[in-house]
Specification:
alpha/beta, 8-stranded mixed sheet, 7 helices, 11 strands
C-alpha cells in the first residue's frame, strides 16, 4: 500500500509560516554600524535574508527596526513586508521580538525569529528548519545546535508565540529557552551557517579572508 499524502501532495500539511527579522541593533561592537546594511558581494545582508525567506515560502515577514531606522527602511523599500519600529531598541533584543510578533497579521503555525546580520543563511537553510519543525516529536521552539552551540534562526510554534507575546518585559525567546528547556527541541545539525553572524569588524574581515567575498561596511550612525 502506498503512502497517504496530505494537502498539496506532500507528507505534511502546508504550514502558515511567519518571520520576525530583527534589524534594530545598535552595532555597538562595530562602533555604531547598522549591521543589516553590511554588503556582501554588493547586496545588503537584510536583502539577502528577505530573498531567503521568499524562497523558503515564508508567508509574512515583519522587519523590526530601531537603530538607523531610516536607512534600514530605505533598504527594504519595494519588498512586500511589514515594518515595525522598536523605539526602545537600546534596552534589549527581546522587546524587538515581542514588537515583531505583535505586528504579524493573524495566526501562524510557525514563526521564524531571525537575525539580519547572518550572512550565510539561504532559502535551503530555512527549509531545513521547517522540515525539522514538522518532524519533531516534542517541543515548541526549534533551535539549531551546531557543535554544541545554539544557532539562529529559531522557529516558534503557536504556544511559544503566545507565551512571548503575553509575557512581561523580561521574557523573550532567550529567557524561555533558558528557563524552560522542556519547551525546546534541539535540532542537532552540522550546518555551520546557523552559527555564523557578524558581531565585530574582525568577524567581517575573517569571513572575507575565508571566502574571498567582498564585504563593505556602511558609515556608522550615532543615532537611529
Amino acid at each position: 500500500m502506498g503512502c497517504l499524502l496530505k494537502q498539496g501532495g506532500g507528507l505534511y500539511p502546508r504550514l502558515r509560516i511567519g518571520a520576525v527579522l530583527l534589524a534594530a541593533g545598535e552595532g555597538r561592537r562595530m562602533g555604531g554600524v547598522a549591521k543589516p546594511l553590511i554588503k556582501l558581494q554588493g547586496v545588503p545582508l537584510i536583502t539577502r535574508q528577505l530573498v531567503a525567506m521568499s524562497g523558503a515560502g515564508v508567508d509574512e515577514v515583519v522587519v523590526v527596526t530601531g537603530h538607523a531606522r531610516g536607512a534600514v527602511e530605505e533598504a527594504v523599500r519595494g519588498y512586500t513586508i511589514t515594518l515595525a519600529h522598536n523605539d526602545a531598541y537600546a534596552e534589549d533584543q527581546q522587546r524587538s521580538v515581542r514588537v515583531g510578533l505583535a505586528a504579524l497579521d493573524g495566526a501562524f503555525d510557525a514563526v521564524f525569529v531571525a537575525l539580519a546580520d547572518q550572512p550565510l543563511i539561504g532559502a535551503g537553510d530555512l527549509t531545513e528548519l521547517i522540515g525539522a519543525f514538522k518532524k519533531r516529536e516534542r517541543g515548541h521552539i526549534v533551535v539549531p545546535i551546531v557543535g554544541g552551540e545554539r544557532g539562529n534562526p529559531i522557529l516558534l510554534d503557536a504556544l511559544a508565540q503566545a507565551r512571548i507575546r503575553e509575557s512581561g518585559i523580561n521574557t523573550g525567546c532567550r529567557q524561555l529557552i533558558e528557563r524552560e528547556p522542556d519547551l525546546v527541541y534541539k535540532y542537532e545539525t552540522t550546518n555551520a551557517r546557523y552559527g555564523a553572524d557578524l558581531d565585530t569588524v574582525d568577524d567581517v574581515e575573517e569571513l572575507a579572508r575565508r571566502t574571498g567575498w567582498r564585504l563593505e561596511l556602511p558609515v556608522p550612525e550615532v543615532a537611529g
